[in-house]
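Subject: Sanity check before I submit

Could someone independently write out the structure tokens for this chain? I want to compare against mine line by line before I put it in a report. The sequence has 185 residues.
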Amino acid sequence: MLVFLTGYMYSGKTTVARQLSERLAENHGFDTRWTDTDQEVENRYHVTVSDCFRRYGEAMFRKLETDVLRSISPQQGRSVTIVATGGGTPCHDRNMQWMRDHGLTVYLKLPVGETLARMAVSRKPRPTIIALKPAEREAFVRGQVAVREPVYEQAHLTIDASNPDIDALADAVVAHYNALHSDCL
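---
Independent answer below. Compare away.
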């Protein structure tokens, strides 16, 4: 089974993917793995996300990101692959619909103010905001969230990314898995 974590940058998708993978393995006996689409782009194409944006533009990055996303296959048996997607991944190339058709989608929702606070202390600035002054950054984030949120809200589940309840999320994943495999129980 595939679980796709979506949401705006700094919502904690990679951290939640790691924690959810551990929880599903330890508490529910699943064979788990997790991946991050940005990291997969970097590994597969030998270019950092920042360099890809700078050298080839956003359109090329979105193509590579979509190729990576759609190459991720579910494992067999009692297994779960958790995929931390990039913030823009669901909003391009009908990726949200593709993810909904191929797995459980989870929107990690974070208020814009908290996004900006996390952004301000991050040691890893994102390529789309690195050159922006604070006021420009806030306007940019608010504008992008306004455009992207309707896509994010198409996810099967929405959870509070300010303080995600990993146990409740794990239980929801198990329930989804069981519903998919009810004929096998």
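---
OP: Matches mine. For the report I'm noting this point. The mean pLDDT is 91.
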